[in-house]
Design goal:
Length: 229
């Protein structure tokens, strides 16, 4: 594992069994991602984007192949070990925000720390993360009291709180109007510049992909084009 790579994947395959039928969602995908890189993953529906995101984000294991995250071989880990890696190394931002409606914005941001058993510094770190996304005046608001763009900012603060090696954003502007979408992308790119956190964007939107320095196109479970090579 080279030190300048935060992700190193070799010959990743993912096969799903539907009764007697085997579906190859990914086939021998090899991919290296440098620390601090901004990468977009594109492709039509069924191309393998979500499957690849699930593998890179340690939400699932490959059927075969090897995957190193931050120098650690994770492709063979069990579910509990993957959950621990996710909580320490990966921050997720989803299209639907995935906030808990009964909790305040600050409490939502602090959730990853609670899962990790961190309580002594959690409140302080939660406030700092909210300040990073310019929502220090909305900490005690619940999600329904926030605009879509503000909810996505809360989700980004939650993704940042554990100082992850990578942030994975799956269609991060899909539920936002164009102005809010541009603001969220500006925020994500600025956070990448300021903190050096690797940013991986999974998107159908060419305008979002244009914000990345490197774009990978998937088709039928394989990398069809990689402008970083």
């Amino acid at each position: 594992m080279k030190k300048d790579f935060v992700i190193e994947a070799k010959d990743l395959c993912k096969v799903y069994k539907l009764g007697e039928v085997e579906v190859k969602a990914l086939c021998e995908v090899s991919l290296n991602i440098k620390r601090g890189e901004v990468l977009a993953i594109m492709g039509p529906s069924g191309s393998g984007k979500s499957t690849l995101m699930n593998l890179l984000g340690c939400l699932d294991r490959p059927t075969s192949g090897k995957y190193y995250l931050d120098g650690e071989l994770v492709s063979h880990l069990n579910d509990n070990q993957l959950a621990d890696i996710r909580n320490r190394k990966v921050g997720f931002v989803f299209q639907n925000f995935n906030l808990l409606s009964r909790m305040t914005a600050l409490a939502n941001v602090e959730l990853p720390l609670r899962y990790a058993g961190i309580t002594d510094s959690g409140h302080k770190r939660g406030k700092e993360a909210m300040e990073q996304v310019n929502l220090s005046n909305r900490m005690n608001h619940r999600p329904m009291e926030l605009s879509g763009g503000q909810q996505q900012r809360v989700a980004i603060a939650r993704a940042l709180i554990n100082h992850p090696s990578i942030i994975m954003a799956d269609e991060p502007t899909g539920n936002l109007d164009s102005k809010s979408g541009r603001e969220i992308m500006d925020l994500l790119v600025d956070l990448n510049k300021n903190s050096g956190t690797t940013l991986i964007l999974v998107t159908h939107d060419a305008n979002i992909a244009d914000r990345a320095k490197r774009v990978i196109h998937l088709y039928d479970g394989q990398i069809e084009k990689d402008n970083g090579k």
